[in-house]
Design a protein that fits this description.
By secondary structure, this protein is mostly helical. It folds into two domains: about 50 residues; about 220 residues, MetI-like (MetI-like fold). Helices cover about 75% and strands about 0% of the residues. Helix 4 packs across helix 12 and helix 10 packs antiparallel against helix 13. The protein is globular.
Length: about 290
Amino acid sequence: MSSETIIGRRNAVSDVAGRGAKAAVLIIACGLVIVPFLGIVSTSLASPAEVTQAGGFVLFPTSIDFSAYRSILAGGVVTRSILISLLVTGVGTVLSITLTAMLGWALSRKGTVGNRHLLILVLISLLFNPGLIPSYLVVQQLGLLDTLWALIIPTSVTAFNVVVVRAFFVSLPKEIIDSARMDGASEWHLFRHMGVPLAKAALTVVGLFYGVGYWNSFFNALLYISDSSKWPLQLVLRTYVVDNAQLGTEDALPPQTSVQMAILVISIIPIVLVYPFLQRHFAKGVLTGAVKG
């Protein structure tokens, strides 16, 4: 047997071993993600007796019981908080995308008044956080305390997303912009009919960032909202999970663990439903902002 044949077989064995190791690592990583998520869903759907017998965590329930979900939605607190979170997320995401796109376009156009100075301010805000007390004082002076706008306006524009959108606009072919200008297109026309359609991938990714941020945010509500009737879902979730609050005093209520897991599932569902439709834009939008500009 020639040495080349021996080397070839060794390489083949090495490739098989390498692929097997990669597959094992991938399976373990998937298991670390899937098993806890499956446990959350299963515990929320398990019967009260099964949850109590298992000590609070059920991986494979023997029967399906929706009592935890009925208890949550019957009280009205969670239902109201879901509507508030949907409202804040919807309005906030649209507002944030609009402001970020306009600011990114302005910063990408050379010759705009104050372009350089405004870009420096954006980059400074990316590096330095204003702090908790100054932020609270600003919201207080604007009269936003105990309003839903306090959950939207303070985080309506983030420097990182502006940089990503600006990088995409900078990467647009200069010839197309100049040609449109020669045809008499205004700056607003360029932005609305050329910049925004061409930046669809980047704006989709930025919108996903903003949407997830608004949906998962609870600290701003904890800080600025004292009226519990205006609490978003995540703050209600924190109250039940962290503070171990109860839905009521009835003996027929399901175990607290089932209630907590059911609220977790409800809070995850919107992101799980939306993300698959935006995933195809994700890599393109992020890589464009990271590589170019």
